[in-house]
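hiii so um. not sure if this is the right channel but i have a protein structure encoded as tokens and i wanna go backwards to a sequence. like what aa goes where. can anyone help
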């Protein structure tokens, strides 16, 4: 029996916080103990006393700190091929960076492109990840070509492979795009097996017209990436996806990476009517803007080319997204981690913004960036834990193994120091495999102190103690958190 005691901290869950010690037995949380119980049970020495029989128990001192479930980031793209290159983090570098940021589970996207087989795509993703992850991981499956074969594969994945969520795209024709008929068929299929449909909701057909027109006018700078993807086309696609999911039988629908008020209002309205619709946003949409980042002079703005795009800070999107998080119109904050270096990757779009690989890296910074919402009063401490760990675990069939500090759960635990302070960026030695940071120079309050993945300390004393291959593939169940 290997016992470990996290002592003296404040355990935080979505429903509250309490002073408690957390007893870990091997890979699992054995007990959450009221103060004094560990001493009474003889598994910890009296404070200031001599460790007697209990000296073989490892103790982590969490005095003055929060003890929270490890972060669950349900939207990452390690090694994703895109636009003639591939996302620069491997499963190894990306999951190590995630661990540094207090994330103990990722759910990445296995890819089927138009014309390819779903099962081949999944096998390729297993090859990339197997033996390389420092933390636990699962997969969603991208369905880039809805046909009889891929519909059959969807059912197979739910029944046999622990893959219970499928991402469709209303953008990127010829690569991932599904038309309305295909979307309806995939939703009906998901409804039969109880799976969740995830949607990239932007009207890609209209966007491609705007992109071609902009390029013809000589508008090639990175900022035109946002100007050719107007908020109305995110709102319109979101509305259409919600309508289709209702027609398909109120099939659970999760709108990924929402950046526009127009889209948020559609999700809020559907939820008000009791539809199983959930919204996700990412730190970049809460903190970064068209004016301050994407429109930087020259080619600098390429760092912030992602889809959906960063939006104008003068149009209320930021404030609305924060409010949406507070009011549970938005359920989850993930990162859409999809890093590309400037050199040789983002540079592919020099002189043509439409060729800039789409993506921002942020898997390392989500917990600390969202914690700033706690510091400023935008979010409660409990809501921070809920949106970054508990709800993503519930929505994607990982709860209560993941996403909560409770007896029986995996010992995926972060000791969080509210008095810590760090500066984000390449210059401050981030761990993602990127030659820049989307958040360079951002100063944040609060800091990861210690991270446990299934009972093993993977980060502590500002050192990485984990290893590639520690992370296990998670077969997920169905969503447990419908309206
Ligand atoms: Zn994505």
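sure thing!! here u go:
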């Amino acid at each position: 029996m290997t016992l470990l005691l996290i002592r003296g901290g404040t355990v935080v869950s979505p429903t509250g916080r309490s002073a408690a010690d957390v007893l870990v037995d091997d890979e699992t949380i054995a007990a959450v103990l009221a103060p004094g119980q560990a001493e009474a049970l003889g598994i910890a020495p009296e404070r200031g006393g001599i460790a007697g029989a209990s000296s073989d128990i490892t103790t982590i001192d969490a005095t003055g700190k929060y003890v929270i479930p490890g972060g669950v980031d349900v939207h990452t793209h390690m090694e994703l091929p895109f636009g003639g290159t591939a996302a620069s983090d491997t499963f190894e570098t990306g999951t190590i960076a995630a661990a540094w940021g207090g994330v103990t589970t990722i759910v990445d996207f296995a890819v089927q492109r138009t014309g390819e087989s779903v099962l081949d795509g999944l096998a390729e993703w297993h090859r990339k990840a197997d033996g390389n992850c420092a933390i636990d991981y699962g997969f969603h499956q991208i369905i880039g070509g809805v046909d009889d074969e891929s519909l059959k594969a969807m059912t197979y994945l739910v029944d046999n492979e622990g893959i219970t969520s499928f991402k469709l795209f209303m953008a990127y024709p010829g690569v991932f795009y599904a038309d309305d008929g295909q979307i309806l068929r995939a939703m009906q299929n998901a409804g039969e097996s109880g799976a969740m449909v995830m949607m990239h909701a932007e009207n890609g057909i209209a966007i491609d017209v705007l992109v071609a027109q902009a390029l013809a006018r000589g508008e090639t700078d990175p900022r035109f990436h946002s100007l050719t993807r107007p908020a109305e086309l995110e709102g319109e696609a979101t509305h259409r996806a919600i309508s289709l999911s209702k027609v398909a039988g109120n099939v659970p629908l999760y709108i990924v990476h929402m950046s526009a008020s127009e889209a948020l209002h559609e999700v809020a309205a559907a939820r008000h009517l009791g539809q199983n619709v959930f919204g996700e946003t990412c730190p970049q949409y809460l903190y970064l803007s068209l004016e301050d980042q994407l429109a930087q002079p020259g080619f600098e703005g390429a760092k912030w080319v992602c889809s959906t795009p960063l939006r104008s800070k003068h149009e209320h999107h930021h404030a609305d997204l924060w409010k949406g998080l507070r009011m549970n119109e938005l359920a989850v904050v993930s990162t859409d981690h999809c890093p590309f270096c400037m050199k040789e990757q983002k540079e592919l779009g020099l002189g043509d913004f439409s060729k800039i690989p789409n993506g921002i890296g942020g898997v390392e910074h989500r917990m600390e960036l969202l914690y700033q919402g706690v510091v400023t009063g935008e979010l409660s401490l409990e809501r921070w834990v809920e949106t970054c760990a508990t709800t993503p675990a519930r929505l994607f069939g990982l709860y209560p193994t993941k996403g909560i500090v409770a007896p029986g759960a995996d010992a995926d635990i972060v000791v969080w120091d509210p008095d810590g302070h760090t500066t984000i960026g390449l210059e401050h030695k981030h761990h993602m495999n990127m030659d820049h940071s989307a958040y360079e120079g951002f100063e944040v309050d609060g800091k990861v102190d210690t991270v446990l993945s299934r009972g093993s300390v993977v980060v502590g004393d500002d050192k990485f103690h984990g290893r590639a291959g520690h992370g296990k593939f998670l077969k997920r169940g169905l969503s447990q958190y419908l309206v």
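oh and The radius of gyration is 22 Å.
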